[in-house]
Amino acid sequence: MVISDTQSGLAMAIAVAMTESALFPPVVPLVSRNRYFTRKKLLKKLEANGNGARINALLDSMRASSPTRRPTDTEDHNSWILHHPSALNMFEEIMRASKGKQIVVFLDYDGTLSPIVEDPDRAFITTEMREAVRDVAKLFPTAIVSGRCRAKVYNFVRLSELYYAGSHGMDIKGPAKGHTHRKGNQTVLCQPAREFLPMIDEVYKALMENVKYIPGAKVENNKFCLSVHYRCVEEKKWGELGDQVKLVIKDYPQLRLTQGRKVLEIRPTIKWDKGNALEFLLESLGYAESDDVLPVYIGDDRTDEDAFRVLRERGQGLGILVSKTPKETNASYSLQEPSEASYAVPQTFGGVEEAVRTKALE
């Protein structure tokens, strides 16, 4: 479906500039003058203590990726918003920029469709949010791209008309049938890391054994990757947890350690991430080389930066970061986390249902 007028455009809380160049303002580093640092600079500062000894690099990285919340300086926040304006304030521009474009919607799950919670098994989507996403999928190809196991995300969302990309995009499956957006009749399926499954299961069992004595630690098997959550672990135990994780994976050079929000991620070393998943889905939908497509990606985590970067490199599409605090990002626009996203998506996505009814009456 190609949008031909503003009334039938993407009724959702995302922002876009009136010109193509404005979609991708320059990435603004978070500099020390405003008491923000890039992660690289912050880790360099943390590498040594008073006597010059090197601090555990993984522990430093865990701290850097999980900063203690503090009130945001108004001047700093305003400066960041200037370069990453609120998507809510740019709605009319979205409608104009989407004219004549095929919109494809990509959504992260945790922190975007559901709030970040202490127990990852209880990150439930609200009924209102589910209905809003259902309405969006009536008009636009819609995918959920998550670090979670694809089956677990599906059990949370329970919408069969969506595309699901689990394990940071390493497990992709589309609707089996009856989906009007896809060109052709074949089911979309992509699992580039299948050969790693036995190894990942082996590491999962070892991690479960090694961290069971650390209160609050939780190991989640996401099929093609593993997550070690430390949101409920006392900070004084983070070093011990990191050591146990490193101890397990040191004998598996085919696996790599990455980080998210209070979570350590263990993934295969293959070059595949959420950005690759976005490109694969666009190609599967027949829009890989199209100039008339507008991919929209909304996410909150460091792993979503891979997708934001792809959009920026394509010079096509729209990345929206969900975050309360300024951070370095390749996204162009922002939404607050989590309350604004929880409010904005149902309220504005709900307008799609009206667009569907209007088109049905024409």
Describe the structure.
The structure is a single chain. By secondary structure, the protein is an alpha/beta fold. It folds into three domains: 6-27 and 80-117 and 129-180 and 272-361, Rossmann fold; 35-77, no CATH class; 194-268, Alpha-Beta Plaits (2-Layer Sandwich). It has helices at 39-46, 57-65, 74-83, 91-97, 127-139, 150-157, 197-211, 238-249, 274-284, 305-314, 339-361, and strands at 102-107, 142-145, 163-166, 171-173, 189-190, 218-221, 226-229, 255-260, 263-268, 293-299, 318-322, 333-335. Helix 6 links the parallel strand 2 and strand 3. Helix 5 (127-139) packs across helix 11. The relative contact order is 0.18. Residues 1-24, 28-55 and 346-353 have low confidence and may be disordered. This is Trehalose 6-phosphate phosphatase. Pathway: Glycan biosynthesis; trehalose biosynthesis. Its cofactor is a divalent metal cation.
Characteristics of this structure?
about 350 residues; 8-stranded mixed β-sheet; 11 helices; Rossmann fold; globular; Alpha-Beta Plaits; 3 domains; about 15% strand
Topology record:
Elements: H1 39-46, H2 57-65, H3 74-83, H4 91-97, E1 102-107, H5 127-139, E2 142-145, H6 150-157, E3 163-166, E4 171-173, E5 189-190, H7 197-211, E6 218-221, E7 226-229, H8 238-249, E8 255-260, E9 263-268, H9 274-284, E10 293-299, H10 305-314, E11 318-322, E12 333-335, H11 339-361
Parallel strand pairs: 1-2, 1-10, 2-3, 10-11, 11-12
Antiparallel strand pairs: 3-4, 4-5, 6-7, 7-9, 8-9
